[in-house]
Inverse folding.
C-alpha cells in the first residue's frame, strides 16, 4: 500500500533517505531539493557542536604550515585537510590535526560539504573536493573486512570536543598516569591530554586501521608539543584479547561517543575491565549521549562485567549552560539539537572495591 501523498514520513524512513541520496548522488548531477529538505528534519549535522575548543582550518598544505622536511610532507595528502586547535591552557602550543576528506563523486552543483567537520569555515576549504552527502565505498569495504564501524573517519564528533575540554579542565588527574583513549577517531582528546598534562604516557587507540594511520600522523605532526609525555597510537579491537603486556596497566581510560552501537557493548565493557588498573584512583571516563536506551544497555553490560559506575548529568557549568541554551532555543547554531541524541552524559567506571577480610575477635 503506497503512502498517501503529503503524509509525514517517520524519522527512520527519512534517515534511510539520507543513505539513499548518498548513493544516488554519485550518478546524478541534479540536486533533489525535495529530498534535501525532508532530510534536514532529522539530520544531526553540526558545524561545531559545543565549540569548547577554538579551531580553524589551515589555509595552505600542511608542509607549508609546519615545515618542508620530507617527513612532514608525507603527513597530509591532497585528500586531507588540517585543523589548528588552540587549547585553553596557558603556554601550551596549538595542536594540528589531519582529517581525511572522503573521495568525491561527480561534480556537485552547489559543492557544499556534507559531513560535520569541527568548524563551519572548513567547508570552504573542501567544497570542490567533497560533494553533498557522498559516501566513500572503500571505507565500507574496510569496515566489513575488520568488523568495525567507520564513524572515526567522519569527523571530530561533539562528544570528543566535550571530552577534550573536560580532560583539560581536570589536568591533575593525569599527573604521572598512564592514559588510554578508546575509539579515539582522530585523537583530539588524547592529544590534548598529552600536550596539556604531565601524564607519563598516552596511548591513542582505535579499531579501524585507517583511523590509526591518521592518529599516528597527528602524533607525528604534534611531536614537539608533548614534553616528557610518551605518546603512541595503537590498533585495538575490543572483541579481541589484548596483548598480555597491557592487561590492567592503565590508570585512566577515556572515551567519547563509543556506546552508540549495542553490538559492541559487551566487548567494550570487557576491554575496559581488562585494561583498567586495579588500584585506587584508577577509572574510565566516558562521555556519551543517551540515544534512546543505548547508554542504559551499555551500563547494564558494565555491571555484568563486574565493574561499577557513576552517572553524572551536570559535570561542568559551561557545558551545561551551552546545553540549556541549545535546548531552550536561546542559541540556534545547532539545528535539531535534542538532549537524548546530543548532550553527552559523564560516566565514571571503576573496579569494585575489594571486600575487606572479616576479622573475628577471640
Amino acid at each position: 500500500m503506497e503512502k498517501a501523498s503529503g503524509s509525514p514520513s517517520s524519522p527512520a524512513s527519512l534517515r534511510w533517505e539520507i543513505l539513499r541520496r548518498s548513493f544516488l548522488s554519485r550518478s546524478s548531477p541534479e540536486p533533489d531539493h525535495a529530498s534535501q529538505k525532508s532530510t534536514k528534519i532529522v539530520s544531526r549535522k553540526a558545524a561545531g557542536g559545543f565549540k569548547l575548543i577554538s579551531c580553524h582550518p589551515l589555509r595552505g598544505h600542511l608542509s607549508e604550515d609546519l615545515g618542508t622536511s620530507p617527513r612532514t610532507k608525507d603527513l597530509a595528502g591532497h585528500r586531507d585537510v588540517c585543523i589548528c586547535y588552540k587549547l585553553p591552557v596557558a603556554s601550551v602550543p596549538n595542536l594540528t590535526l589531519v582529517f581525511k576528506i572522503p573521495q568525491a563523486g561527480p561534480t556537485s552543483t552547489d559543492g557544499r560539504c556534507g559531513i560535520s567537520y569541527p568548524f563551519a569555515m572548513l567547508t570552504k576549504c573542501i567544497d570542490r573536493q567533497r560533494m553533498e552527502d557522498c559516501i566513500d565505498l572503500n571505507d565500507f569495504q574496510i569496515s566489513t573486512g575488520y568488523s568495525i564501524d567507520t564513524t572515526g573517519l567522519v569527523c571530530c564528533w561533539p562528544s570528543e570536543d566535550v571530552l577534550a575540554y573536560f580532560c583539560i579542565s581536570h589536568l591533575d588527574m593525569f599527573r604521572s598516569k598512564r592514559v588510554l583513549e578508546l575509539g579515539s577517531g582522530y585523537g583530539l582528546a588524547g592529544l590534548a591530554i598529552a600536550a596539556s598534562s604531565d601524564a607519563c604516557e598516552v596511548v591513542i587507540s582505535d579499531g579501524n586501521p585507517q583511523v590509526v594511520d591518521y592518529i599516528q600522523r597527528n602524533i607525528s605532526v604534534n611531536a614537539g608539543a608533548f614534553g616528557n609525555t610518551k605518546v603512541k597510537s595503537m590498533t585495538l579491537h575490543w572483541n579481541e584479547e589484548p596483548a598480555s603486556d597491557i592487561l590492567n596497566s592503565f590508570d585512566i581510560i577515556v572515551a567519547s561517543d563509543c556506546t552508540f552501537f549495542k553490538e559492541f557493548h559487551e566487548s567494550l565493557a570487557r576491554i575496559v575491565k581488562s585494561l583498567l588498573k586495579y588500584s585506587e584512583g584508577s577509572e574510565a571516563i566516558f562521555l556519551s549521549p543517551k540515544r534512546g536506551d543505548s547508554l542504559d544497555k551499555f551500563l547494564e553490560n558494565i555491571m555484568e562485567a563486574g565493574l561499577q559506575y557513576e552517572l553524572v548529568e551536570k559535570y561542568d557549568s559551561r557545558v551545561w549552560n551551552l546545553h540549556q541554551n541549545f535546548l531552550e532555543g536561546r542559541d540556534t547554531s545547532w539545528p535539531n539539537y535534542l538532549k537524548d541524541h546530543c548532550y553527552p552524559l559523564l560516566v565514571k567506571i571503576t573496579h569494585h572495591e575489594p571486600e575487606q577480610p572479616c576479622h573475628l575477635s577471640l
